[in-house]
Fold this sequence. Notes:
Elements: H1 8-11, E1 20-23, H2 33-42, E2 47-50, H3 61-66, E3 70-75, H4 82-89, E4 94-97, H5 100-112, E5 116-119, H6 126-129, E6 133-136, E7 142-145, E8 151-154, E9 157-163, E10 167-177, E11 183-184, H7 193-199, E12 200-210, E13 229-232, H8 235-239
Parallel strand pairs: 1-2, 1-10, 2-3, 3-4, 10-12, 12-13
Antiparallel strand pairs: 5-9, 6-7, 8-9, 10-11
Amino acid sequence: MNKVVASAREAVADIGDGASLAVGGFGLCGIPAVLLEALHQSGVSGLSVVSNNCGTDGHGLGVLLSDGRISRVTASYVGENKEFARQYLGGELEVELIPQGTLSERLRAGGCGIPAFYTPAGVGSQVADGGLPWKYTADGGVEVASPRKEQRAFRGRTYVLEESVTTDFALVRAVRGDRYGNLVFQRSARNFNPLAAMAGRVAVAEVEELVDGALHPDEVHLPGVFVQRVVPLTAGQAADKSIEKATVR
């Protein structure tokens, strides 16, 4: 099956207001910047986003966030995004902060059809016991707090039950892909992109290089069964990558 779509705009055309999205990337590494820009241009709003972080001011998901297009974020890191922090603390945005490893497993479990799992991460804290502020009021009160989660002992150790995550769509970026949706990710871009794609009911991948024929099975990081649309990038789009913090020695 040929899953190649002619443009990013066409690939995200059916993402409507209020949709839920799993978005790949780690900081600004491996973010689906072209798809996110196309989504921004489409004018959709009220999005519920699941991603390790919410981009930075002016980059990635941060562009949608700054325009008020995102209503809820499930993430493990606020990072350097000042607008993210401002909207959360100001009561404009609902934010579910969870441990990073738990987030990755919730996405993977969703893609594998596993409804929930037990983990020791968060036991003895508000992650398990509830009370984490998900949404503040404008005057700083807590409008929505996290619920208490089921806990159970296995072999003398306490674990907390975490539900898996599935979303309407997933947006990811791969260094290489074929027309069947098989994908290869590069270095840190592999951290969340495969998991996000697995969790989305419709996964859209922008690829820096569309290979002729099919990828060799030993190369594939994510099989095409999880990917519904492939958008080849131009050379300029593939080379345009932001750096969150430039450092020199």
